[in-house]
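ok so i was messing around last nite and threw this chain in just to see what happens. nothing serious, just curious
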Amino acid sequence: MQQKPIQEGLGHNIMAFDKYFRIYLKNNLKVYNLNTAEGMVLLSLCGEERRTEGQIFDSIHKNEPETTQDQLVHELHYDKSVMTRTMQSLESKGYVTRSMNPADSRSFLFGLTEAGSGFKAVLMDIMREWNDTVLEGFTALEICQMSDILAKLAQNAQKTGIRKER
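result:
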């Protein structure tokens, strides 16, 4: 297999895809006075609503917090300081609530307010338009394979990223 120059390589394409996604999200959220980080957090919190009743019951029964700031940091790969500012901003804008975590008094639990839950439809429309555009011309099988390959790639990248320095 012939190797392509670095500019045409996998890493370059992943960085370009991420860059254009963030630009798209920024442009679509600015009319709502939200930035990209705030949009990503709201998307993540909206995803929590997709859990089944059984999963929610299990998390309560095991005293697992619904969503902590640390969970969001881990899921979205943001710095803690960025996440702190983002959560404060979302709270002041009325999209999220913050309450003391009964399992750990040093952390908070975050949930969507009525306004935050109501914004889910807007976010889903934004994401649907993005997906329709970037996945145009791909078959369902190609999309599934791409998703599996990228998940494996992310898993390997995570392992590599957490290795200790030599």
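not much to say yet. The chain has a mean pLDDT of 83.
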